[in-house]
Amino acid sequence: MKRVLVTGGSGFIGRRLVDALRRRDTVVLAPTRAEWDLASGDVPAFPVDHVFHLAGASGVPASWKDPQGFHRVNAQGTATVAEFCRRRECSLSYVSAYCYGVPARLPIRETDPLRPNNPYAFSKLQGEEACRFYHEYFGLPLTIVRPFNVYGPGQGDHFVLSRIVGQALDPAVAEIEVLDLSPRRDYVFVDDVVEALLQTAAAAPYALFNVGSGVSYSVEEAIHAVLEASGATKPYRSLGASRREEIPDVVADIGSIARATGWTPQVSFREGVRRLVQAEGRP
Fold first, then answer.
1. What's the rounded Cα separation, in Å, for the pair 279 and 277?
2. What is the pLDDT of residues 189-248, one digit of tens each?
3. Which of 55, 86, 192, 242 has the most CB atoms in a 10 Å sphere around its CB?
4. Distance CA 221, CA 66 (A)
5. Which domains are delineated in the chain?
């Protein structure tokens, strides 16, 4: 990859991916939404040989409020990117999402049933379908990556770990409040996700990988990790509420990516939480 285009290059994962590529002396184009509105269907003529497609609408709660908007950006926008790659004759890495719904078994393999149970996951899966169509009928070289729960410094506070850290470090907050202490998630540090994207970009003509840690932690365990890393001693409580269509537990089977590329996560959950706390201004 000599010239690469990154959609969503100013986003949480995108910023780090752009930096990592430039450290490898790759020429990186990262158009803003004003320069390329994916939902418009326009296909510009950027001269590149690979595309990392990260741009899109995110957030499960927000997707329930605007399912059509999420579909327009994440599904139709991805079809626009696939058409760009077809015209440029370049390869594509598509960053999808967790699309398995409530799993029938743990850990979850890439071949397990896809049961998107919220508009965000549905829109990302439709993006996958657009990519697969372009691969099958136009020969588009393609890698699909399904990250589980990505976290790290710089993530918005509408994500649970960032919200817990913010409450733990805010002296004006007397106790940490969360909706529910029990849901378990497979948290994977953002730098590990970036490395997975770099290592899988050459997995064409077609590949599909889960990207996670292979371990899950409950919200309560996450609170304990944050308190330990921050040195805070605050109480915490559940509001006794659950998100719509909540999923009780997810664990990624990451055997496929490990066998194909040698990738494994390098940042443990507690180390990642320590880095997240430190980035928020607490040693």
1. 5
2. 999 999 999 999 988 799 999 999 999 999 999 999 999 999 999 999 999 888 888 999
3. 55
4. 32
5. 3-279 (3.40.50.720)
CB atoms within 10 A of CB 32: 10
Both tokens of 103, joined, read 């799993």
- Class of residue 283 by CB neighbours under 10 A (exposed 0-12, middle 13-18, buried 19+): exposed
The pTM (predicted TM-score) of the whole model is 0.96
Give residues with Cβ within 8 angstroms of 249, minimum separation 6.
103, 106, 183, 184, 216
d(CA 239, CA 281): 27
Tokens of 237: 């409580």
Element (H, E) at 200: helix 190-200
Contact 281, 230 (CB under 8 A): no
Q: Give the sheet arrangement for strand 3-7, strand by strand.
A: 27-29, 3-7, 50-53, 91-95, 142-147, 206-211
In whole angstroms, give the CA distance from residue 102 to residue 111: 15
